[in-house]
Amino acid sequence: MNTQHTNISPAEAAALVERADASTRSAKQSDAWPIVVLEMVLGAVLSLALLAQVVAGTTTGGTLMVGAGLAWLVPAFILYFRYAKGWQRGTTFRFVGFVLFATLCLVLGVSTVGVLGFGWVPFAAAAAIWVATPIAALLELRD
User: What is the Cα–Cα distance from 140 to 35, expressed in whole angstroms?
Assistant: First the structure.
């Protein structure tokens, strides 16, 4: 226990509390950026991979385009695991919700490419991912 500052004034105590709050806010803000980058890359990759699958069809070229897009996840995860200091309260719920939503859109879009003949569904699913991505990123930065 540090007994160096046992007789501090109320003004000094208030200044110390304000410094601690500023430090906490700064740490939370800097911890949010790796998850924001990961969400942005994930959303862009999934929506563009879905569009590539629609445009190229279920051919080998379409599969290669999806794989090339998904390769962008490797540096995104490396960046995240290298620089993320920890999860904030609520980050797990928001991130898992975003991933589940994006995955549902991807599965719905890919499954309707050639099976049902609904040409608009994959485009709508890609648009939903494209819109949800910056919203999820902004929710991470709002604290």
Answer: 8
